[in-house]
Design brief:
This protein is α/β, with parallel strands linked by helices. The protein is 26% helix and 20% strand. It contains six helices and ten strands.
């Protein structure tokens, strides 16, 4: 229904359930983009952040996505890779860019880590200068390949979801203005703990999207 209105549809996933059946369904409903979270270019780095996850299995699922799309002669859903940067893994960003290229990703989006507990506070990169990308000769290519975040905390009020006239829909059909407000959680900005509450504007099981 959203596609009929000419609006793009995207999904963010860890890729663990991307079976051939699911991939075919995503193609059938004409989903535009699928972003898969890969927080490291190798198993050690990936599992350091996503403990218990199957790095090889996710890569196999991504390759299966490409294979099914090629077999069916379709371009969508286009693949994007999302990389959460921490002080542990950011130096492997050039390798991540190479892997994203190998996986035929159209986009590589780098985001800053949002610490959910005290232990993760030391992993923030906000103290880096915007121009401090310590990758040597890889820096120019990387800057062209990846959407890099600001490395300093900004105070101006800007929201990409507002600018893009976007909304987020959770698995229950509840509408939020962005994915940051889809659930309740605590996070740390420097040494200050913030409590985030969910905010819902409506329910697609009760009202149509244009009414919401």
């Amino acid at each position: 229904m959203i596609e009929e209105h000419g609006v793009k549809v995207e999904a963010i996933t860890n890729g663990s359930l991307l079976s051939e059946e699911v991939i075919n369904k995503l193609i059938d409903i004409q989903m535009d983009n699928i972003f898969i979270s890969l927080d490291g270019p190798d198993e050690e780095e990936y599992c350091n952040i996503r403990q218990g996850a199957d790095f090889t299995g996710v890569l196999d699922n991504i390759r299966l996505l490409n294979e099914v799309k090629e077999r069916r002669g379709v371009r969508c859903p286009e693949l994007g890779i999302e990389f959460m940067a921490t002080k542990y893994n950011y130096r492997k960003l050039p390798q991540m860019a190479s892997l994203a290229s190998e996986l035929k990703a159209r986009q590589l989006i780098v985001t800053n880590v949002l610490p959910y507990n005290e232990e993760m506070k030391e992993q923030i990169l906000y103290d880096m200068e915007d121009t401090d990308v310590p990758f040597g000769y890889n820096s120019p290519l990387l800057l062209m390949q990846a959407h890099l975040p600001y490395m300093k905390l900004r105070t101006e009020r800007y929201c990409k979801f507002v600018e893009d006239k976007a909304m987020a829909v959770n698995h229950k059909g509840l509408i939020s203005p962005c994915y940051a407000f889809m659930h309740r959680y605590n996070c740390f900005i420097y040494d200050r703990e913030k409590e985030i509450y969910p905010f819902y504007m409506g329910d697609v099981t009760e009202k149509l999207l244009n009414e919401i």
